[in-house]
Amino acid sequence: MATATEHLTSKDVLTDLRLFLQGVNRERQVSNQALTKSALYLLQTLPVARHAVFEYLCNVFEEAVQIQMKQLQFHEFNQDDLGESSNALDSIIQDACGVLFNFIKTNPAAWAPIISSWSLELLGHLSGKYSTHRGVPHSGSLNELLQLWMTCKPTKSLIEVATECFAAMVKGAPEVCVDSLLEASVKYSPHFDWVVAHIGSCFPTTIITRVLMSGLKDYYQHGGKPGEGHMSSDDKMPKMASAVGILGHLASKHGQDIRNALMKLFEASLTAESEMIRKTTIPFLLKLASLSPMLLNILTTDLINALTPEVLNQLNTILSQWKNTSHQEYESFLLLVVHLVIQSDIGAYQVLQFFLQAAIPIGTEAKVIHEDIQDTCSFLIDQLLREVQSAVYHRQNNGMVEVPFLASLTPKVKELTRMLLQSDGMISLWLMKLLSYVALYSGEECTSEILVCIISEATNFRQLSRCLDLQSTVEVKLGDVLPCTIHRLVDMLNTQQMDNVKQLLGNLLCLVQWESTSHVAKEYRSLYQYCIHQQWESFLPLLSNSDTKIAITMLKIINIVKLPKVLSSPVTLTLCSSLSELFFRILEIEDSKTAFEMVTVCKQCMKQLINSSYVQTTILRFFIEALFTKEISVLFGGKIDPSSLASEKDTYTKLKEENMKHGLSLTLPRSHSSVFHAGVIGKGLKPRTHVQVLKQPQVVRNKQCLVELLAACSVTAQGPEEVHTPMETDNMFPVRKRRSTLSAELCRMVGSLITELATPDVLYNNRFWPEEDSIRITVERDLFVWKIFEDNQVLWDVFDLYSSSPLAMCRCSPVLKSITASLMNFFESCRQKQASHSPRQMEACCKLVRCLSKSRLLPTPLKFISELFPLVTSYEAYLLLVEMWKYIKENPPTEDPEEVNKRVCEPRHTVCVRSILHKDIHRMGHIYSRFFHETMPPSENKMDD
User: Fold this and answer.
1) Of 328, 446, 474, 880, whose CA is between 20 and 30 Å from 240?
2) Distance CA 418, CA 446 (A)
3) Smallest Cα–Cα separation from 64: which of 82, 94, 26, 90?
């Protein structure tokens, strides 16, 4: 167009000028196309007319936007529905933009700043004017607003013109375009934000850098000079808010560019020659952060990472003059830092770490960081804690104040707690206060997480005392924090979310032990004992833990917190089962001292349990049933046959393989083929070897512990406490006391249970003893019972414990009968001359007679025949057993104690005993008087007549 008008004369210019003036002033009817043509011609040929032309073009664009808004109101979005006026205006706008683009292209230095200011001013005016128009989104919906104005042809053309101007000036004079953008943003914000967002997205790096520099310059010029005795206000720096808005719009897509620009500005300030940049950059960045949470998040992450000891020393040098000239203003600057930290919701943990490490540096950093920096960081921490305390307690009273710093630290409470446990001195005090404020701010769940972390990771009582200190601080506001803590502990233990269960339980034990001995704990705080007591059932699975020390620690805790007096049946069964399993696991420990201590803990728990016959019955049944298993019998001297360890699967496989070899062969009657094909019964005469797993001292110890435990569980609830009844024990073990009064009901139960477990059937399970010849019928049954007692020698110790009660022995009569029958069969056919040459059988005879005599089922003198077995022959031993059998046959076992006490031995039952004594009087004369008391005639007793 410029080329076409080169040959026009001044007369033509004057003609177009008059036409333009008459058309604008309404003196003459001129069409819009002709008027616009004249205006554009004047813009190209008469520079002084540009202000009038730009004003006219503003009216054209505004009219076009008005038509678009009307169409938007009536939802007419289709291009075909546009009227003639809209088409004409679109053509005019297109011509005008063509001319403007040509100016920018041919002479950008002259026209780009003018057109840029005009277009941005017009865009701001249009955006503000139609911001309340129906159908226009709210200014907060930036994406919707941008989409609306970019679909409007007039505004789209204007933004394209402004973008072209920025592209032309971005290399030569970027500060001019940025200043115009900031001025328009200040004037028309927030309706102008969409323009800033669009232009900024086209030139992100340049816009961000120039916006920061423009904002820094504005900050310096309007009172942001450090050391002048005052701090700048937001009202004096309009470009600051605009710069914050522009950066905020660009943050979603160009956040990394903003981060880089901020860090470059900070790094440049450390080495800049300009005093303005060097002294003003840090206050300026903090001012930006106070106006924008997004910029604050950048500073609390990237800037903190850049503050190395060397950089801190440089900052101290830069700010030291400010501190010396205006100390009050410098403190205000530090308080601004504290305020920003409190408002930071991202990077708060890193900021806290930085302050702590700078305040009290460790290692080589202690020599590098200047003392002024350490004092400053200590001051910042103290002020931070003071402000946080005020905010927390104000929030507790009103429930309105939010503290982003504490909210950001809430997910980091575990790291803070571990830091607390590993620290001491001032850092420990600071962290203790901070954790208490975090706990009060976040509530019981967060507090319980802190307490759980301390309890699970504390390695000494000094660290564990932090738990008590924190509890005493927060319990004033959070009364249910301790039950919540115990509940969290239970959940973590039962879901196996912890690796250091042993340490956790040890700390819990330490706490409840301290509470049980401390009067202060009972008066001024909630008790762990009470909270654990309320949820003690949830801890029961720990008693079955594979680690015996964990189970014992849990049992110690239960002993301190005490069991409820009334237990449900399922809980009773679970507890009894766990205790019995734990007891037998303790017996596997070789160290006798450790084992006795653990057994004592079990006994203490059982003493709490045996408050009812039901519980006593349950726990005794668990213990006695376990004695009949191979795994448990090994603990009491039981021996293992290695050949019995072969699995049935292997045996079945071999038999199957052998049968498959002969599957096609002919089976002949009465031949080896038929026998072999059916399999081989038994293992023939292959010698068997038995191996004892435990050493004899450990076996003796285990038997002693078992007997003591059974005695403690079998005592009557109203019986006497204890009597001094020493038990057979090695010198290395202390003498234990055993309860003397056994419960009659429990004795019956134990006797019936042993009979039930030891006998293969109930066919002969009555208390009456038949004729001695009938033992030939029950040989297999008797050998079965004998084998059980032979493999489980501890059963004799159980018999010895309950033999003082005729009730138990009466119920065990079938077992005693089978054992006696087996011994009679053995000694009747024994080839050994002396009974002592068969030590196992002889010892069984002695134990058998001792049990019957202690239960008073054998009267004097038959109850002393156990002293004869080591001295008699095998056949004489058989005769003694026959005499005992005959007496019990005639005087069957009974549960009536009065009848038992009245029993006497008739002379006919002692004939065999007397005969054996007379036969070997030279060897047995010294014990004759125990069996028979011979008296002399009266005449022979006189010395003189």
Assistant:
1) 328
2) 15
3) 90
Give the strand pairing for 639-640 and 691-692. Answer: antiparallel
Residues 662 and 807: their CA atoms lie apart, in Å, by 59
Q: What is the pLDDT of residue 1?
A: 41
| pTM as predicted | 0.73
Specify the pLDDT at position 676: 46
773-810 residues labelled b (16+ CB within 10 A) or e (exposed): eebeebeebbbbbbebbbbbbbbbbbbbbbbbbbbbbb
- pLDDT tens digits for range 266-319: 888 888 777 777 878 888 888 888 888 888 888 888 888 888 888 888 888 888
3-class secondary structure per residue, 653-694: HHHHHHHHHCCCCCCCCCCHHHHHHCCCCCCCCCCCCCEECC
Give the pair of three-digit tokens for residue 916: 């054996």
> DSSP string spanning 92-142?
HHHHHHHHHHHHHHH-HHHHHHHHHHHHHHHHHHHHHHTTTSTTPPPTT-H
Distance in angstroms (rounded) separating the CA atoms of residues 640 and 635: 11
Tokens (6 digits) for 522: 């009972």
* CA–CA separation, 506 and 498 (whole Å): 14
DSSP-derived 3-state class of residue 581: helix
Residue 514 CA to residue 521 CA, distance in Å, equals 8
Label each residue of 153-179 as H, E or C. HHHHHHHHHHHHHHHHHCCCCHHHHHH
pLDDT, residue 323, reads 78
Give the pLDDT of residue 728: 41
- Adjacent-strand bridge partners of 939: none
Q: Is 733 helix (H, G, I), strand (E, B) or coil?
A: coil
The greatest distance separating any two alpha carbons of the chain, rounded to the nearest whole angstrom, comes to 192
Amino acid at 167: A
Q: How many other C-beta atoms can be found within 10 angstroms of the C-beta atom of residue 272?
A: 14
Q: How far apart are CA 862 and CA 910, in angstroms?
A: 7
Q: How far apart are the first and last CA of the chain?
A: 178
Q: Express each pLDDT in 664-706 by its tens digit.
A: 454 545 444 444 444 555 554 445 555 567 788 899 999 999 9
Whole-angstrom distance, CA of residue 848 vs CA of residue 937 = 38
Closest CA to 450 of 473, 476, 426, 425: 473
Collapsing DSSP states into helix, strand and coil, what is residue 476? coil
The residue with tokens 């002020």 is 383
Distance (Å, whole) CA 259 – CA 741: 85
pLDDT tens readout for residues 870-886: 999 999 999 999 999 99
C-beta of residue 787 within 8 angstroms of C-beta of residue 638: no
Evaluate whether 875 touches 912 at the Cβ level (below 8 Å). Answer: no
Nearest to 528 by CA among 552, 504, 557, 567: 557
Residue 793, token pair as written in the block = 């020698």
Q: What is the DSSP string of 313-380?
A: HHHHHHHHHHHHH-HHHHHHHHHHHHHHHHH--SSHHHHHHHHHHHHS--TTHHHHS-HHHHHHHHHH
Secondary structure element (H or E) that encloses residue 703, with its range? helix 696-714
